[in-house]
Amino acid sequence: MKFFSFFCIAIIVLLLSCKTRQVAPKNYLDNITDTSINGVIELPEPMIQKNDLLSIKVYSASIDPAVDLPYNLPEQASGGAGAGTSGFLVDANGNIEYPRLGTLHAEGLTKLQLAELIKGRLEGERQLTR
């Protein structure tokens, strides 16, 4: 009798636990555009935001170290959760203070755009010192 009761309960549980699979509506994926090329998804270039910590290094073909050194920060750790990192912090106004170039507005730029801005300022400074 116990075996029969157990068998009936097991059958009822198995029958009630089964559920048919729901099919997604046909228009479920209609709003998604395919931005992939050969299966690789292209993501937009991230923009620099306030409170980002930027690591910026200036390199030159010059053999005179006095040309490069004034633009690069010495490697030192900053305190807090980001221990072991150094760089330029984007302030509340979206600016960074860069050695010898002064204040640069970095917020809303991509890495490439900021690099071009710094290159342009360095070219301008180099022409002024000649």
Strand order of the largest sheet: 1-2
The number of helical segments is: 3
- Helix content, binned percent: 25-40%
Class from helix and strand fractions: alpha+beta
Helix and strand element order: HEEEHEEEH
Average predicted confidence as pLDDT: 76
Number of strands: 6
End-to-end separation = 104 Å
Please state the CA-atom Rg, rounded to the nearest Å.
30 Å
Biggest sheet layout:
2 strands, antiparallel
Shape: elongated
Poorly predicted ranges (pLDDT <50, ≥5 residues)? none
Strand content: 5-15%
Features:
single chain, 130 residues, alpha+beta, two-stranded antiparallel sheet, two-stranded antiparallel ribbon, 3 helices, elongated
Strand-helix topology:
Elements: H1 2-17, E1 36-37, E2 40-41, E3 53-54, H2 65-68, E4 88-89, E5 95-98, E6 102-105, H3 111-129
Antiparallel strand pairs: 1-2, 3-4, 5-6
In brief:
By secondary structure, the chain is of the alpha+beta class.
Description:
The longest helix is centred in the last third of the chain and has 19 residues. The mean pLDDT is 76. The strands form 3 sheets. Strands 1-2 form a two-stranded antiparallel sheet. A two-stranded antiparallel ribbon has the order 3-4. The N and C termini lie far apart (104 Å). With 130 residues, it is of the alpha+beta class. Helices cover 30% and strands 12% of the residues. It is elongated and about 100 Å long. The protein is built from 3 helices and 6 strands, in the order αβββαβββα.
